[in-house]
Amino acid sequence: MPAPKSYLGPASFFDWRADNKEGTVDVVLLTHPRDEADASRLFPFIDKLDRPEIAQLQRHLHPMFGEIVSTGDFTVGIMFLPFYAHELIDPESRRRCAQILQEDAVRMAAKAGAKILCLGGLTGALSLYGRRLVEPAKQAGMALTTGHALTAVGVHQTYWQALEQLERAPGEQRLTVLGVGSIGRAFMDLLQASGQPPRELVLVDRPQAAGKLERLAQVFQEQTGTPASFEVTDALGALAPDSACYATDVLVSAVSTPYVVDIDKVAPGTILIDDSQPFCWDRAKAWRRCAEAADIVPCDAGLVDCAGIGYRSAFPFDFADAGADGSSTTAWTCQTEGMLLALDEDLPRTVGEPTIDTILAYQDAYIRQGLRIPTLQCGPHPLPIDKIKAAASRVAA
């Protein structure tokens, strides 16, 4: 397999086109910076601007590639859209973001000859889990897959890797799932299909999802025999002081309410697995507590090691397993779903909430292509698993 070649930065598309005049960027991930600080990965000079200046600059930007990687089997690009997570959540700016996604981003991807679009960040929620993008993509000659099926697989694999490395039995864990949207519900489907349920399950979401919570809890309990219950947040997504999220063994989260989980209130021994956009708990505070007290296990989710399919990125994502040159075989699961589809066109496309058949198809592809979960990490820091286990042993003694 030839070594992958990376074209990096805002000029990546033009540099790639100069070398590949008749080529196509087969897979394009549509995503956005998480926040203003995240934007400096694409534009290092942006750190010299204040927030109003950044907002003014952003109004003049168009969707652009931050990196294009050619592996030999396919070419994949990460396209950044000129808005942040908080703008997608804000009703006043949400419509503008949707227009950029459905018109400008699709047009730019088509210009690159894309065959497959996949969705990162909050673009899945912005497009009704891809439903609003299916027709624009189709008219431009592209297939669409949200990435949510493989993301659910990635969250599920991270859950098992954390339990395995910490030598915890799944049947002894109280598991809380915060957010039962596309990812949270799909994770539950995989957990149910695994035949290894937790000791207890608690589901948490906003009041408008109460009916869904009740149904999911009832089905899970009937199918697995595991006691299952639910609780609701307030209307804005804030947790109650006595929330199950603060009295659990494992907390899996996939929500859009930023920093809703207070790390200081998390019970000692809790494994946290977060696939939220924006983050639902503070990475810096979580890492500080992990490094100093070693009494929580804060894991980023949504990451996959793609060495098995020849992928290597040079983009400065601060992945924990980056090499000496800063490059890494780690990719986002949403992007990897598109790459798997490029390798196997018989895989289903994910639009709407993924079905269990679709999730299992991507789980099989994950295994078949030799993918795996990378080093467990909190932000850019690999977790000190041995230190955490030693601290837990002292407490138990």
CATH architecture classification name of the largest domain: 3-Layer(aba) Sandwich
**Largest β-sheet summary:** 6 strands, mixed
Q: Please give the CATH class of the largest domain.
A: Alpha Beta
Mean pLDDT: 93
Order of helices and strands: EHEHEEHHEHHEHEHEHEEEHEEEHHEEH
- The number of domains is 2
Descriptive notes:
With 397 residues, the protein is an alpha/beta fold. It contains 13 helices and 16 strands. It has a 6-stranded mixed beta sheet with strand order 1-3-4-2-5-6, with helices on both faces. Strands 9-8-7-10-11-12 form a 6-stranded parallel beta sheet. The protein has a two-stranded antiparallel sheet with strand order 13-14. The radius of gyration is 20 Å and the shape is globular. The model has no long low-confidence stretch (mean pLDDT 93).
